[in-house]
Amino acid sequence: MGVVQKIGALALSVAFLLGTAACGSGSAESANQIHIGRTEVFDGFTLDQELLNEDYAISTAVMEPLIRVGNEGKELQPGIASSWQYNDDDTQLTININPDAKFSNGKAVTANDVAFSLAVWKSGPNYGANYSSIASSTVKDDHTIVFNLSQPDSSIPAFLSYAVAGVIPKDYGGKSAKAFYQNPVGAGPFKVESWSTDGDIVLNKNPYYYKKGYPKADRVINSYTPDSNSVALQLKAGQIDLVNQLDSITAKLLDRSYIAKVPAHQTPTLVLNTQNAFLANKSVRQAIAYAIDYESLQKYGFYGFGELPNSSLPPNLEGSPKTTGGYYRQNIAKAKQLLKGVDIPASITLTYPTSGISAAVVQIIQSDLKKVGINVELKSVDGGTWSSSLSAGTFDMSTFATNANSPDLIDAPSYVVSTKMLYAQMDTSHLADLISSYKESTDTNAKQQIVQQIDDYLSDEVPYVVLNANKVIVAKQPDIKGLEVQPWSCYYYDTLSH
């Protein structure tokens, strides 16, 4: 999500968080208020422009998608769509809309709103391809819409749970798109009071929310700060209730009772730009993968919050693959053999965000590659510059992280393809064909076999090296209830309470 993810779905944080207002759970005034700290600058509410995991949780709280994800990210559940079903040949998907679903202005959600929303999703440059198999839609009545598919696509329900597939009013409620997204109206549990990209986002309870008894909180404040040194103190002092995507250095200093249960899932990577003549050589990319000391990265770079990588794809989804023959482990002799006869440049640059990855990670990579004769220059840049360089392909090597945004196994591969092999600028036609075959299949075993082929292909081609299987760290006050963190670090705001 996914993905930049996703940056999936989906990315390494470009900043760390601090709650800036003293609105902690100890105050009577805030007894029914949740104060969240965020580690990333908010991309705004514009659907399809939401590229970071933090964006997804905020956006979903306001513009809820048709389908929800439940059971710790393992299944799809009814939401605004009370049910959905394919026809016999899987060429139509009928969506039944919950008759209780209303926008925060009190107007009912209708099939015409969903039809308009679909057109918005499909037009998105980042995620629109996920909905390309929906050729058209047919409104049957106010609460029934049929998606007509150009080909069978079993993954559509999962993509309908994405934050970028938020349901919005037809014709933006009579506003321009720009004006609408400045003050969006959705059918989620909260409505917007105020927001800024690098400040507080204040959300108030939507009195028309379709889930009776929810949201549990009347108000949510989500605050951003670039200062990571005071995070633990703010959390311990009760000035924030939740901390999203806490960096592993700070998390190491916290009592483990603060750390929420999240399975290892996010995959921090070293992306290898194949527009660079040196990195265009597959043997070079494989040599780099063999040069890296994954055990040291796990211990000293990620401080034990995660697992050694076993796949090119995120782990801990139902049916997640493991690379046939095993994923890369350090083998200096093999790396040197692969580089034999290769013209190695004087140096190659590794770009990484100033606040988003432990300096130890890039230093370990630099040291490991030097052992095989590759001199790496480290280039630390601000988050915006780093993100832009990925999108434009103006880097040699870069750090990145990805994850799924739904329980569907094709989620992460779809993002890899949509980003030219996770920004490595490689041809994606082979993977695109495999993804198409996956979507056309309804057989679980056949789908898992296709994803295994995808994983093996990525591990052999090495457009990126998976450095670790991370646990995205979410920390919370002991009194917070209703927190269910999905493997990709998202959670729903409507269930949170003290």
Layout: helices, strands, pairs:
Elements: E1 33-38, H1 53-62, E2 68-70, E3 75-77, E4 81-86, E5 92-97, H2 111-122, E6 134-141, E7 144-149, H3 156-159, H4 177-182, E8 190-194, E9 201-205, E10 219-224, H5 231-236, E11 242-243, H6 248-253, E12 267-272, H7 282-291, H8 294-301, E13 306-307, H9 332-338, E14 348-353, H10 359-370, E15 376-381, H11 383-392, E16 397-402, H12 411-418, H13 429-440, H14 444-461, E17 464-466, E18 469-470, E19 475-476
Parallel strand pairs: 1-10, 1-11, 14-15, 14-16
Antiparallel strand pairs: 2-3, 4-5, 5-7, 6-7, 8-9, 9-10, 11-19, 12-16, 12-17, 13-18
Helix pairs in contact: 7-9, 8-10, 13-14
What spatial form do the alpha-carbon principal axes imply? globular
Sheet with the most strands: spatial strand order: 8-9-10-1-11-19
SSE class: alpha+beta
CATH class of the domain at 267-469, anyone? Alpha Beta
Radius of gyration: 22 Å
User: What's the helix count?
Assistant: 14
Query: How far from one another are the termini?
Result: 29 Å
Q: What is the number of beta strands?
A: 19
Shape-level CATH architecture of the domain at 267-469: Roll
The largest β sheet comes out as: 6 strands, mixed
Strand content: 15-25%
Low-confidence parts:
1-29
* CATH fold category name of the domain at 267-469: Dipeptide-binding Protein, domain 3
Q: Percent range for helical residues?
A: 25-40%
CATH superfamily of the domain at 267-469: Dipeptide-binding Protein, Domain 3
Mean pLDDT: 89
Signal peptide: 1-21
Protein name: ABC-type transporter, periplasmic subunit
GO molecular function: peptide transmembrane transporter activity
Keywords: Signal
